[in-house]
Write a structure and sequence with these properties.
single chain, about 260 residues, alpha/beta, 7-stranded mixed beta sheet, two-stranded antiparallel ribbon, binds thiamine diphosphate
Length: about 260
Amino acid sequence: MSDTFNEGITCEFLDDCDIVWDRPDSLLDTRLHYCPGCGHSVVHRLLMEVVDELGIRDRTIGIAPVGCSVFAYNYLNIDMQQAAHGRATAVATGIKRVRPDRIVFTYQGDGDLAAIGTGETIHTVNRGENIVIIFINNGIYGMTGGQMAPTTLPGVKTSTTTSGRDVSIHGHPLKIAEMLALLPGAYYVTRTSVISANHVRKTKKALLKAFKYQMEGKGGVSFVEVVSNCPAGWKMTPVDSNKWLETNVFDNFPLGDIKLPVKD
Ligand SMILES: Cc1ncc(C[n+]2csc(CCOP(=O)(O)OP(=O)(O)O)c2C)c(N)n1
């Protein structure tokens, strides 16, 4: 089967059609490996729409650590750098400092950013590096088989909390965005989702803002958390996983801006 699965599909009335969907130039025309319904694919697309709209494809560098997004460089047609688990913001710091003319972002899961990389995350934000951090919080270690993450909700069963997360043993869900917003080096901190068209639009707006702030050199980290799903790891259908987000997760991880830039 061809990689370009849309190949050969034509619209005989093309001249009369309004184009309602098109692939961003910066998103490679290839199949994504993500499970059906997974939010990673949506965020990949939004990211590349933003890169195209800002005209920064030739000077954007993304850092993908490990986790389900490990293959992001197979889809994002920009310069990409791999980082060891948890170390993306340290690598991004180095790249941005050596090449301040580049637009630098990290793309990290919750196991990566809020567990093994907590130290790097806090210190990068505290230093106020002029980068964008994109945090995909799906409440689980997706790639490695669904172990508990720091963001797993109490009572939720995972492969390492088979009776459900017990806060007396495993601690409380870590609201790292709220923690980071307290640091002076955090310029913009927001939390969004991609469960519906409306939420997708809001996430795109947030990403646009974050990249613009970096381009304007305002100083400080722009942090966009996307509360996402993991239908395979959660053992739910994509539809049920989105319902679960609405009925359970958003109460614990409320959507909206957490820190807005101070007007100058
Ligand atoms: C130093 C190190 N420790 C552990 C691993 C194994 N590992 C790979 S991905 C991963 C979890 C990723 O989870 P998350 O960051 O939440 O991303 P997701 O897959 O859910 O998108 C782990 C523990 C590793 N590759 N390197």
